[in-house]
Structure formats: C-alpha cells, structure tokens
C-alpha cells in the first residue's frame, strides 16, 4: 500500500504564458529568466532531499525546472504529468474566453478539442499509482509538472473528484507535499513559494 510514501509536487517556474494567465498545455515554451531564478531557489530549498524516484512532464518548462533544481539526471519522463489538454482554448486567458462565453470555467465547461477534467483525473490516478510503486517501502517521490495536473493529482490523492483541484491554488515554482496521517492520505504542505 506504500503508506508513508510522500509525493512532492513541484510546479515549473514562470513562463511568458503562465505570467499572462494563458492556458498552456501542449505549447512547449521555455522558462522566463524569473522562472529560471525560481528553479535555482528550488535547488537551494530541495538541496539534500533524497528522492526514491523523480518523474517529470515531457514539456521543456518542467524538464528545465527539474534540471536546474538538480534532479535532471535522476528524472524519468512521465507522460501522465502532461498538462490538461485545453483544446481550442490553448494560449487564451480565462478573461479572453469569458468575453466570448460569459461565465466560462475550465473546471465546469466542455473543453472543445481537449480533455475532460475526469480524463485528467484518470491520468493523475495513474501517476499516483506509478509513484507509489516507485517507493513501495515509503520514501519520497518528486513530480515536476504543471498547475492543473498537479492540482487535480492532489485532489485525487485525498479522495476528491478531479474537479476538487479547483479549490487548490498553485503558484509557479512551488512545492507541495502529499503525505499521510496514519493510513489516511493528506496534504502535508501546500503551495510553498519563494517570494
């Protein structure tokens, strides 16, 4: 059951699109200078932390964050950590979308040409299972990825529906820890930033 295994969720550093609020999934853009600085701060924060496994999204913003943070040599690409596929909303901000569709929300409306929130939840469940299998005796597993997939993964960790991720804000370059209280999955630490 891997009770005791902690999942350390690390959101990538800032990109031009995360700065503007644009939905960024399959568009493979690099970190900004500030994003790279945040990754260096992650390196300092995580220095000395031993992970039994490190998984990273295949997108360059997550891979770059992981490498700068000092875990690139240990990381294994995990396709389940790709960000939510936003379909036709890729590259648009919520405000821009709401100008066309008043009240639109990624959490409650159809994602035309993309993934349902439930499908992203299923991907998150698979990542959780693989992460727990990577540290069956307890330990720490790092997951370098993106805001929405990590928010959904956290919701699924504590037994919420994938839409429960809407309740969990997550900044760029942040660290969150999923852990245990006895046999119950809990959020041990959330959205630890470096401002």
Query: What do the pLDDT scores average to?
Result: 95
Order of helices and strands: EHHEHEHHEHEE
Lateral strand order in the biggest sheet: 3-2-4-1-5-6
Fourth CATH level, the homologous superfamily:
Phosphoglycerate mutase-like
Write the layout of secondary structure elements.
Elements: E1 5-11, H1 16-20, H2 33-46, E2 53-56, H3 60-68, E3 75-77, H4 94-100, H5 117-134, E4 139-145, H6 147-157, E5 175-181, E6 184-192
Parallel strand pairs: 1-4, 2-3, 2-4
Antiparallel strand pairs: 1-5, 5-6
Helix pairs in contact: 2-3, 5-6
Notes on the structure:
The chain starts with a strand and ends with a strand. The model has no long low-confidence stretch (mean pLDDT 95). The chain has a 6-stranded mixed sheet with strand order 3-2-4-1-5-6. The protein is of the alpha/beta class. The chain has one domain (5-192): Rossmann fold (3-Layer(aba) Sandwich). The chain has 6 helices and 6 strands; from the N terminus they run E-H-H-E-H-E-H-H-E-H-E-E. Helix 2 (33-46) packs across helix 3 (60-68). It is globular and about 50 Å long. Keywords: Isomerase. InterPro entries: His_Pase_superF_clade-1, His_PPase_superfam, PGM_Phosphatase. One of its GO terms (biological process) is regulation of phosphorelay signal transduction system. Its EC number is 5.4.2.12. The active site is at residues 12, 83.
């Amino acid at each position: 059951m891997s009770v005791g295994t902690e999942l350390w969720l690390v959101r990538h550093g800032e990109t031009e699109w995360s700065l503007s609020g644009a939905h960024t999934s399959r568009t493979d853009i690099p970190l900004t200078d500030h994003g790279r600085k945040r990754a260096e701060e992650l390196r300092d924060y995580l220095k000395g932390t031993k992970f039994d496994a490190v998984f990273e999204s295949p997108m360059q913003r997550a891979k770059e964050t992981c490498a700068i943070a000092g875990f690139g040599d240990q990381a294994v690409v995990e396709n389940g950590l790709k960000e939510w596929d936003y379909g036709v909303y890729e590259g648009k901000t919520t405000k821009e979308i709401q100008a066309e569709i008043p009240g639109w929300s990624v959490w409650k409306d159809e994602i035309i040409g993309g993934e349902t929130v439930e499908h992203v939840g299923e991907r998150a469940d698979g990542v959780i299972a693989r992460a727990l299998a990577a540290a069956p005796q307890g330990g720490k597993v790092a997951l370098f990825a993106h805001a929405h997939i990590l928010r959904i993964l956290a919701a699924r960790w504590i037994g919420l529906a994938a839409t429960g991720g809407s309740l969990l804000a997550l900044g760029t370059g942040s660290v969150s820890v999923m852990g245990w209280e006895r046999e119950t999955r809990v959020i041990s630490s959330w959205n630890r930033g470096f401002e």
